[in-house]
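Record minuted for completeness.

…
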Amino acid sequence: MDALPAVLSAVNSGVDSCEPLHKVGRELRAGWSHTNPGEEEHEHFAALWAAMEFRLLDGTWDVVLGPFRSTDDNGDLVSRAVGEMPPAVFDAWAAYAPETTHPLVRARLHHLLWVARHGTRPIEYLRSAVHSYRDAASALLTKAEEHLEALVPPPEPGGAASFEAEVARLAAADALVLAYGLAAATRQPERTDIVGDMIALGQAALAWKPPSPGVLGLMTAPLVVSTHDKPAVRPLLEHAVDEYCGEGQFHYRVEFLEELRCVVGADEHRDMDEQIHRARMELADNSTGLRKLLAMEDAARHARDSGLTDALDEVRRTQQKIGRDELPMDTIGTPAPLPAGYLEAASAAIDAADSMEHALHSIATTPPTMSDSAALPSGLLSLPTVYINPNGPVVTRTVGSDITGGEGFFFRQHVFALDVHGLVVEAQLDRVRDRFRPTAEDLVPFFASPEHAPEPRMRGLARAFEAFWEGDVDTALALALPRLEGTLRRRLQAADTAVITHAKGKTIGQVQQLGSLLDKLDELGFPEPWPLVLRTVLGNAEGQMNLRNNVLHDLVDTPSRHRAALVLQIALAVLFLGEEPPARTGSADSGTRMPLPWNAAVDQRLPFPVPDPRAHDFVTQYADMHDGAAHLPRAPAPLLLLLRVLHRGPPACPDRDGDRPPGQDP
């Protein structure tokens, strides 16, 4: 196969660019789009364009754009490995590689041919790639300096380098990392020279005004994990640690200290651990808000793992002094009106009851609508989330965006559905108050009718309902939650389900905690979705409400009234699920009727018919777009989802063992 002039001209178009691969890719794409499929030029443009679009991800070269991209069954683009390319593509790469002008483009083609093991002697492609990468690094650094010298006006001393110059420097660093990886993997004699080039570039990066920690980090990362090259990189890391010691640079100091720990001897580890701790504390002292809290968490984790007991105590004392007012949070509101007639239908169900007992029994046995799918909607942007307990304060967990496709996202869907249902129960309980005007004395006989509901305990639950109707949410929850848990324990005991753990060895016996009991709800025969509802409201897994712990341990502000209504409904459900409904007080033809049972609205999958057919979609799917709901106002005001957005923390640093993929910017 021969190189065609028009295609070769496009391949060589990046000779004067600070980012040659991108410029060549654009030219090749333009040539591909202006030629007809089937023509030789068109196929050559396609093959070379694909080469420019390959990316190295987790050690594998995959094409993410270009004419050879493919889609899965859902129509989403999927990457394609080098080995999956057609043979004609390899032939095109081999034909153009010797003719290319820019060494980085030439290195890319030779590297891909080596990965594909093309030809009879693929090792020659590897050697050419290594040599070309080194030439490319030198050419790109020269181009960066020329670009800076040509700037008018010239950059200020110590000011940020131009974007183009920084791109060229980073591309040069990437080229050396790739050359090092190829040489080290195949034990090429050039490895020692490449290490020298990397050390020299790292020293140059420290001498630039201002220094470039990105380039420096690219040079040190692959060397600190290599037993053979650790001694060579130690002086560079020591220089970096001395350089990054001022305000705004402590996160770099921490990173390079952790890398330096990887290359020193075991007898120096203790001293390095103490230096890392001091650097982390300096980083925390120079941070505010969530950045400060996250820095303190990292310092505590490091002190714990390093056995620095006194340092860990220091972190704890400092961390506990952080007040809620020092953790700035922004509240973002997203209006989402409830489906038409939703709350009116709920109130109508209470109006249809012929007694207070019937009304409360219908509330007790009408479950919420729960989503049955944990699938993440296509195209939804989901950001990493930080959960904090501000009473400490302490970061309880950090959820990456990948968690949204699994159990954590499923829980957040359930929480949203239950918040919506809480508005329904709130409206129904208020309708019970307005219609029947019950007192605690009216409620106690009804609540105490099941065998597992002793009257002395039910008086507290009845008072919880009174407090709810009086607007005292704190008292309502404080009374209802213990009664709910106690009723659940009594029902489990009556079902011969163990609620205690016997002594074993030196471990004393104990009563099982609520979390363990929630896992046994199926043994009570509660119909779905009630076990899921109780686990979501009372459980403490990632993304659940955890109302029992948060309220009774005074870890949150007063919950919303609709969540208190939800707790009261669950208390009723634990009392009356499986129990016979109260006897009717009206005649069969009196005109009153019980609320429609769950299955009566099966087409909408809602507990009662709603005029708006979109209601089911709203409850089960709208949660897909939101991480959580809180402080939901009652109708007719629109439903408001409040998302807590915490300010972004400091740049991530590598673990203490220094592991970090080659070529990753710190």
In short: Residues 147 and 471 are 69 Å apart (CA to CA). Residues 401-406, 587-606, 610-666 have pLDDT under 50 and may be disordered. The longest strand covers residues 329-336.
